[in-house]
Design brief:
The complex is a heterodimer of chains A (585) and B (352). Chain A has 585 residues and is an alpha/beta fold. Chain A has three domains: 94 residues, Ubiquitin-like (UB roll) (Roll), CATH 3.10.20.370; 142 residues, Rossmann fold, CATH 3.40.50.2300; 318 residues, no CATH class. Chain A is 34% helix and 24% strand. Chain A starts with 10 loop residues before the first strand and ends with a helix. The relative contact order of chain A is 0.09. Chain B is built from five helices and 28 strands. Chain B folds into three domains: 146 residues, Phosphohistidine domain (Glucose Oxidase, domain 1, 3-Layer(bba) Sandwich), CATH 3.50.30; 67 residues, OB fold (Dihydrolipoamide Acetyltransferase, E2P), CATH 2.40.50; 61 residues, SH3 type barrels. Chain B has a 17-stranded mixed beta sheet that branches. Chain B is 10% helix and 45% strand. The chains are: A alpha/beta (585), B mainly beta (352). At the A-B interface, α3, α4, α11 and α12 of A face β1, β5 and β25 of B.
């Protein structure tokens, strides 16, 4: 579709993060939508201002300064729509991740079926599951009521029963929920999302509608083995808006600026990843990861199916102590390329959690933040992997082949070297087969996701304008061998005939010197039944690849990455790997 | 770029909301003078409920059980009071197991609220009640010194402040804690030994204010029965000079120490207040400010933290730090004739 066939509209996207609010400006240049500028300001959702509009306003002011275009007027506020003299803009969309996670109680019948669905749904947004109720739960009705009135959750997600399936057991649980809601003051009553047996919808309405903020979605699991989470996910996004409107100052204004085009950053990331997957090569899949101050998000889509996981409390700023809580300090220090005193690392992590917007000024502190990012992403990836495998295979515990993988987040974009950005993604995700790692260097993903509903052409044209930086094509063979054993022969055929061959040994990280944007044809011949994603173990094949900022990377370090018990060895090896990547920086 | 303000004031106006998350009974009245231990509002916060299956207990249908109910919603009961029955040959009845109130009755069931001791929310500071928030609490105002911190172990107290020495830039060690500190709120530079926290608890002291604390002591500090507040952060760094000056100048004065857990989205900071109602009325503190030349700032990250300095100059463009990060920085003078380029995101404005 050409821009001439649709009215060209300029757009500002706001992304209200936990520490930073970003404003991005898009407009038409030479007949196509382009990303033009970004600006940021500290988020003001929390103390002392408790009003997100202040941070948004400051970010837009900065955007005015950068673009030399006026977006704000003292009298009328935002200038919407744009004027003939090129002032203002036409549309605003907003995404948000700021705020404490919503407290959620999940309810299902069977632990391994409907309760899992409820938990899965809760994990698609910024939530913390504070309690669960299921048939296996031995608590009495009184215990459940006491638990619910004590926890006072923001939201209760109820799933369970296939259509025409169980109803009596679910109704008995609903009675406890209804009674506990009745007992709470109106302002404290939870939102309830019902996505269970469709046949109970009327009974749920009559029992809960008057005493709670009820939303009903079609059954997540209408028949056994078939799941459809999207309608419930959309309702959840509406609930997220309602809850944030109540909890955080200024959201009502943002909703009026955006005419309701406001969504959670996670939901927007999921949307743009699904959009990309549908638009380009659906069977290859697309993955987007965002490493934020408080949360890490993984969104993946292939053949129209989306996986979205939000990990609140797992970040590199206010959420960095969560990385510690999920494991040990050694899980973080194993990623370092140098020896640092344990106590200094711990103190730095805790200081960062209370001053999340602050930046590392020393090289050692930067290395701690990079290690934190790798571990946060590793934890998130490991927890997401099971939902990415359609069926169980020998390598079900590994990341399935997905291409491309796009990374976003300040830790990636502000990293001084591209090799640091690439190593965070490579070590954190540990992709397999052949893939491309790209960097959302301008932090466009959430904004493009939010915009894709109202202006899909903008999303397409901005993405096609090389907005993501290709960090490198990755080839990651999987299999087992002794370190040093040759596992792959790779022949690189270049357009200018300067072809060459490399033998790759197990345990090595190798960067092939291919220029950024240079197209090459690779012939991959795995040895010892290693799998390079050419259709199975030991299978050879040809693949076309493009050089990224760091060329083409052959990651033969094994999957999952092996670590030494002796941390000194890990640090030395990490230093070698960094040097390998830096060689082609 | 605008910045958060670090609140360390020798004299300021302080206004605090003391409210419950649910309805209760407000005990104070407007313009009442309160002390930190005065109760502002009380409510049965940890209410427990019991769902009594009347029909099942009486072995009748739910409709019949409703006919046999002797109580209705709102009735207050004592233990043993009959709720429903009698029925059958043996005159079976259902009795109240505890004292409490019937909340809902019908369809063969009774939801019974068990009476509980009310939770009492104390003022936590000296001051005057300037506003009542109906059913929830009150706003208390005072003037005096205010120091906010970044970490607290969730406890609250009121007592006399005793700095361990005339400078708070040294580690708190066991030998410094003597019987003379019994019942006092101690102020010290930093602590990196959990035994010291134990010894302080056994003395017993009433509270502890530190510039910094070693992060591996967090579990120990959380388990202490007395409040602990950390002003600057984690590690072995001395207390910032502004807070140190206020604490030393107010030695032997009563302070309200609220070491509540730091929750920036809820506006909860651990803090201490030294009420000085007889001082001339100052302005309310400013909550955010724009960074500019001449502003006094506290450095919050990097080797200079938590030193206090003055912004000499803000670089108009991004600068490259020694680790390669590019960011906006300011030239900050601190200590004795020292100057460094500090990222703008690593300073907070200090209002004294």
């Amino acid at each position: 579709m050409d821009i001439n066939t649709v009215p060209a509209k300029s757009l500002i996207t706001l992304d209200i993060g936990n520490t930073v609010t970003r404003a991005l400006f898009f407009d038409v240049v030479s007949g196509k939508y382009r990303f033009l500028a970004s600006a940021s300001a500290p988020t003001t959702a929390g103390s002392p201002l408790f009003d997100v509009t202040e941070g948004a306003w400051r970010a837009i002011e900065e955007l005015q300064h950068i673009t030399r275009r006026t977006f704000l007027s003292e009298k009328e506020g935002l200038i919407i729509p744009s004027t003939r003299d090129n002032q203002g803009f036409d549309i605003m969309v907003a995404t948000m991740s700021a705020g404490n996670p919503m407290s959620v109680v999940t309810v299902g019948l069977l632990d391994n079926v409907s309760l899992l669905n409820a938990k899965y749904l809760a994990h698609t947004t910024y939530s913390e599951i504070v309690a669960e109720i299921s048939l296996n739960d031995r608590r009495t009705a009184s215990d459940r009521i006491n638990m619910l009135t004590e926890k006072r959750p923001d939201l209760i997600i109820i799933t369970g029963g296939t259509n025409k399936g169980a109803s009596k057991s679910l109704l008995s649980i609903l009675e406890s929920i209804g009674l506990s809601s009745y007992l709470l003051e109106e302002s404290q009553r939870p939102h309830i999302l019902y996505a269970g047996n469709d046949e109970l919808q009327e009974e749920v309405k009559s029992g809960l509608e008057k005493i709670s903020k009820l939303r009903i979605a079609p059954n997540i699991q209408p028949v056994l083995g078939k799941e459809d989470i999207y309608p419930a996910q959309n309702q959840l996004n509406e609930i997220y808006k309602d809850i944030r409107k109540r909890q955080i100052g200024g959201i009502r204004e943002v909703l009026s600026w955006t005419e309701g085009n406001f969504t959670s950053s996670a939901s927007a990331l999921g949307r743009v990843i699904r959009f990309l997957s549908e638009k380009y090569e659906p069977e290859k899949g697309v993955m987007g990861v965002d490493i934020g101050s408080y949360a890490t998000i993984i969104a993946a889509a292939s053949s129209g199916e989306e996986t979205l996981r939000v990990f609140p409390g797992l970040g590199v700023g206010s959420g960095c102590t969560g990385v510690l809580k999920e494991g040990s300090l050694e899980d973080i220090t194993r990623w370092l390329p140098l020896k640092l005193a344990k106590q200094d690392i711990l103190d730095y992590i805790y200081n960062k959690s209370v001053y999340p917007a602050s930046l590392p000024t020393e090289s050692e502190h930067l290395e701690i933040e990079i290690a934190l990012a790798k571990q946060a992403l590793r934890i998130a990836s490991k927890k997401t992997i099971p939902s990415l495998h359609k069926r169980s295979t020998t390598f079900s515990s590994l990341m399935p082949p997905i291409e491309p993988i796009i990374g976003s987040g300040r830790i990636l974009t502000q990293a001084p070297t591209r090799s640091q950005s690439l190593s965070i993604l490579l070590d954190g995700i540990q992709p397999t087969g052949v893939t491309t790692l790209a960097l959302d260097q301008n932090g466009l993903l959430p904004g493009l996701g939010a915009a894709s509903d109202i202006n899909p052409l903008l999303t397409v044209q901005v993405i096609e304008s090389n907005t993501f930086l290709n960090l490198g094509t990755i080839i990651a063979p999987i299999g087992y061998a002794r370190p040093g054993t040759p596992i792959l022969r790779i022949q690189v055929n270049r357009e200018d005939g300067r072809n060459f061959t490399r033998e790759i040994k197990f345990g090595a990280l190798t960067a092939l010197p291919i220029e950024l944007g240079e197209k090459v044809s690779l012939h991959l011949r795995p040895l010892h039944r290693f799998d390079v994603g050419m259709g199975g173990p030991g299978k050879s094949g040809k693949v076309n690849a493009v050089g990224g900022s760091l060329g083409i990377i052959i990651d033969a370090r094994g999957r999952p990455l092996h670590f030494f018990q002796d941390q000194e060895k890990n640090w030395k090896r990490n230093e070698t790997w960094i040097k390998t990547l830096l060689k082609y920086e | 770029m605008f910045s958060k303000v670090k609140h360390i004031h020798a004299l300021t106006n302080i206004r605090r909301e003391r409210i419950l998350s649910s309805d209760g009974y407000v005990i104070v009245r407007r313009m009442q003078k309160v002390t930190p231990t005065d109760v502002i509002v009380a409510a049965p916060l940890s209410t427990k409920y019991l769902l009594l299956e009347i029909a099942q207990g009486l072995n009748v249908t739910p409709a019949r059980a409703d006919e046999l109910l002797q109580r209705q919603a709102g009735d207050e009961l004592s233990p043993g009071d009959v709720i429903a029955g009698p029925v059958g040959l043996f005159k079976r009845v259902i009795r109240a197991p505890f004292s409490g109130q019937v909340r809902i009755a019908g369809e063969g069931k009774v939801l019974f609220e068990i009476a509980s001791q009310p939770f009492e929310l104390q003022a936590g500071m000296e001051g005057t009640v300037t506003n009542i928030i109906p059913d929830r609490g009150a706003i208390i105002e005072t003037r005096g010194a205010l120091i906010q911190g970044v970490w607290g172990n969730g406890k609250i107290t009121y007592g006399v402040i005793q700095p361990v020495s005339n400078n708070l830039n040294q580690e708190l060690v066991a030998e410094q804690i003597n019987i003379g500190f019994r019942g006092a709120i101690l102020a010290a530079g930093y602590c990196n030994n959990s035994e010291v926290l134990e010894i302080a608890g056994n003395t017993p002291i009433k509270g502890l204010i530190l510039g910094s604390i070693s992060s591996d002591l967090i579990p120990a500090a959380q388990s202490m029965k007395y409040p602990i507040m950390v002003i600057d952060g984690f590690g072995s760094t001395p207390m910032n000079s502004a807070a140190e000056g206020i604490l030393i100048a107010n030695k032997d004065k009563n302070i309200a120490l609220n070491a509540q857990v730091y929750e920036p989205f809820l506006g909860k900071y651990p803090e201490l207040i030294i009420s000085q109602p007889n001082q001339p009325e100052p302005d309310l503190p400013i909550e955010s400010e724009t960074l500019s030349s001449g502003k006094k700032v506290i450095i919050v990250n990097g080797p200079q933290a938590p030193q206090i300095g003055i912004i000499d100059y803000i670089h108009p463009r991004k600068q490259r730090l020694s680790n390669g990060i590019e960011t906006r920085t300011a030239e900050v003078s601190y200590g004795h004739d020292k100057q460094a380029a500090i990222p703008l995101s690593n300073v907070e404005i200090l209002m004294e």
